[in-house]
């Protein structure tokens, strides 16, 4: 008999003891009241602010704080969406004569990579997952792509960067039975090759010799260092050559004609 009484007492104490709920900034969370039904009234409070108060007939009185707009009572539970850091703290559910204290821990997660999310092969990089929370019971891990291996730390050093590091990484935060994840995409690139200079930088002498050739079938706009004005340059070159030729021809002709007339 004593055992049963003790058991009931322990059960009561357990249900009276509040629960710790966890949520990520921007996420959604459902706070369980601790009772599944009520007869007269149900009220949810955040610290000292009344959020929602439902009476026997189902009529709901709403509080005046901003959190009221982002929360709703479903049966006895309080659903909060678009969680903010200011939502953290004590929540109390009053059901009929009893009250149940709970606490909400809001996690603000920042996954970052240095020097940047686009990495070069064989370089070095550092991944960090920072969790701002008042609760020390959370574990932070990193999951790498391809291999799906887990690292047990909030910081990962990539030294050197390999092709297997390319892809979707995930920072995983475990707080009791709750798991949150924050994605981070990494792109691994081959370092740029330095053997051949860009084709647009053709040297002047080859350009001039190609212009000097009588047929310039290969002289397209893309080949030319000055882009679209190339055809103009080519025309000018041809004109000049023709002009020179004409002058030479005329002078020679004139000389010949003078000699013939003398
Ligand atoms: C709930 O919290 C309030 C304020 O801290 C405290 O006065 C009350 O005793 C607590 N109730 C339970 C059941 O722990
Ligand atoms: C990760 O850390 C936790 C807690 O410190 C420990 O219990 C667990 O064995 C570790 N896991 C690995 C794979 O190191
Ligand atoms: C330019 O091209 C000519 C002919 O192709 C070549 O002989 C010369 O060495 C080149 N000059 C430079 C600076 O690359």
3D architecture notes:
This protein is 21% helix and 37% strand. It has helices spanning 2-16, 204-212, 230-261, and strands spanning 20-24, 29-31, 42-46, 49-54, 60-62, 71-74, 77-80, 89-95, 98-114, 118-120, 125-132, 138-143, 150-151, 155-158, 167-175, 178-189. It is elongated. The strands form 3 sheets. Strands 1, 3, 4, 5, 8, 9, 11 and 14 form an 8-stranded mixed β-sheet that branches. It has 3 helices and 16 strands. Mean pLDDT is 81; it is low at 1-15.
Helix and strand arrangement:
Elements: H1 2-16, E1 20-24, E2 29-31, E3 42-46, E4 49-54, E5 60-62, E6 71-74, E7 77-80, E8 89-95, E9 98-114, E10 118-120, E11 125-132, E12 138-143, E13 150-151, E14 155-158, E15 167-175, E16 178-189, H2 204-212, H3 230-261
Parallel strand pairs: 1-9, 10-16
Antiparallel strand pairs: 2-7, 3-4, 3-8, 4-5, 6-7, 8-9, 9-11, 11-14, 12-13, 12-15, 15-16
The structure holds 2-acetamido-2-deoxy-beta-D-glucopyranose (3 copies).
One 2-acetamido-2-deoxy-beta-D-glucopyranose (NAG) binds at residues 203, 205-206.
